[in-house]
## 1
Amino acid sequence: MQRFEGKSVVITGAGSGLGRAAAVQVAKEQGKLTLVDLNEAGLKETEQAIREVAPNAEVLLVTANVAQESDVENYVSEAVKKFGRIDGFFNNAGIEGKQNPTEDFGSDEFGKVINVNLSGVFYGLKHVLKVMREQGSGAVVNTASVGGIRGVGNQSGYAAAKHGVVGLTRNSAIEYGQYGIQINAVAPGAIMTPMVEGSLKQIDPENWEEVGKQFVQPNPMKRFGKPEEVGQLVAFLLSGDAGFINATVIPIDGGQSYKY
């Protein structure tokens, strides 16, 4: 498949995990990529992963903090300057934050998680949607979470932010569908990414792999998801194959969220 031939796709949080997996998938399908992350080394590693499957891919790396609106304006400007347009946007960058019950959850920590996971998504929508509206087309995928559909114990900031992402997705989809723009969200569950590994290590640094085995037992499939499985879903939603899917939040969690 060459669904992204001639298309420009921006991916935030591209330095690892879901962002990297989506970038590799889009590159396989000849997309032109603007990769955004605060971790410059991670971006270079993602570019290397892309070169292994698509040696001639057009790739622009932009180091940015999505919680700073000026940085968001810059990565959008750089993408348009390089490729002339933005056809797809994976609004993905996020952090988990520390785990504590609500009464012990630090106010500064709460603000930090909200700034990255919710304000960063809002800034991305604000500036990318202007470009897409002016060009009369585009597709956006926001990264929500099963934590944006139901509660997640000891993660007040993360759950609040991801519920907010769901709201932003549906609200902006209502506003921008008339301009030929689709806006959807993916809601990953237990996907084995560096962020999830870090979460398990917060619970038990010495035996985190065993914690992980227990963590997936409520899942009907009894395993972690792979970043590549999310990347393939994101690529589908950004492609023309998903032309009439809009304002939808799609769980990709092995069926776990439907057990509650």
## 2
Amino acid sequence: MLPIIIFLFALLLGTKVKKAIRSGLLVGIGFVGINLVLNLLTTTLGPAAKSMVDHFGFDLHTIDVGWPAVAAISYGTALGSLAIPVGIGINSILLIFGLTKTLNVDIWNYWHCAFTGSLVFALTDDFALGLFTIAVHVLIIFWLGDMVAPDIESYFGYKQMTFPHATSAPSYFLAKPLNAVVDRVPGLNKVEADPETIQKRFGILGDTTVVGVILGLIIGVLANYSFQETLQLAIQTGAVMVLLPKMVSLLMEGLNPISEAAGEMIRKKFPGRDLYIGMDSAIVVGHPAVLSASLLMVPITLVLAVVLPGNRVLPFGDLAAIPFLVCLMVPVFKGNIIRTVIAATIYMSVGLYIATWISPLFTEMATNADFDMGSNSSISALVDGAVWTTGVFVALGKMLNWFGIGLLGIIALSGLLYVNKLKKRGNKT
């Protein structure tokens, strides 16, 4: 669907047919390339994680089934199937009244909202409340999408683009105060650890490709791989570091004409108003700082799963999806890998407890969707089970029911109003 949506969107913005066709095709091909590289990461890290678990004798009983299974379960219910029309409808209303700057074309990822809505439905057995939860979650991702857009442009260089992605955007909300805290820690606040600085200091050893190979070697050793298997894993992780940014560049080649046309149209018809194109955060997971921090987080996440008392979730299916969980921390920390790893460690520590807490509900949801759990009696996932918004929705739905979810909706609407109306008015005065 995405190439067709991009093509039609380009035509609506006044792009010539030839350029619109090319843009749609390049965006579609770029995402195919990104998915191929991410699948490579999944098929290499998954077996390595399993081997690491077997080698160290980890004993955790709730399996992380991975986001593809979670998306299928979320859309596999009558409630979840309504997430896309609800998302499109709310986006249209918000744009009409100027309450968001984000035009979201990433409609597939409304499954994240279907996930929280289905959890609340499983918790309360109230279909209407589950649907209301989906709507409130949609409001939250547009609020976060509008908030993160300036940092995306200043760090990644992507103009008029944002990521209303319910896995990635919440970590941005946490990174802001954590960055302010680190700025006040003597010594740590002076450490520069972005990919460019690391490469200057360490030469070839700081090159992102070499860093990927080294991290692959470390993971291979921890997994008790043979010498040949370790080398194979090292080259594969190095390949991900090289290939993923190239696939993103191809995708951006298709998006740039759309972004320019959108900016021109908004300047003409709505002077003084910006428009962000909402896309999948997969566009930034190939950034060297994101990938480096994410690969470091693979063994750290497994260690956390073992040492945290009370955790029952075994990270597995979503280890390769860690870049999606941390990618929007990176622009806040200006690419500082050390700060990103510290923040991601805190984030994953809390996230594993959330994933453990919601596992009974998620297992029930999977059963209701006729999902084949195999020999597993309890399942969960890091995406979106370890995201703080999931914990908030379930907690408020359980304790305060309609009032709690409604309160969250009021906060989201107030945030959108502040970002897009009051803040703009304040800047003028």
## 3
Amino acid sequence: MDIRMTAERLAQQGWRRHAPKGFTGLIGPLWSRTEQGILAFGLIAGEDHLNPAGLVHGGMLATLLDQVISTASWQAVGRLPCVTIQLDAQFLSAVKAGAFVEARAEVVKKTREIVFARGELTVSMTIVATGNAVLKILQAVSSH
């Protein structure tokens, strides 16, 4: 099974380039598409994403999990900013350079102040990492 993806193949599957600001913009290029109203992310693993063993760095995978989980939470609470206060990640399989890593998340529960969510990363429909997170909802900042 060919796990390598090209920009052309991704575009044919409905993915588009996603250019987030700040730290997350440094991990890409990221791809995104809306699936059932929720934003999914993808990343073609490159040489810059590898650890000394030649596999995608666990910190890179955790960052991608955090990105997709926080985005799903942000969408679920009416686009109020959410910050991660806990993230538990489980790495199930190594990811090699060239693989297209897909990231999806769902909100499990939300209260007025807290969101509980989970996410998973897949390569060719095989789960390579999962994560559970608790996020704090930041209330809209007043301009007065």
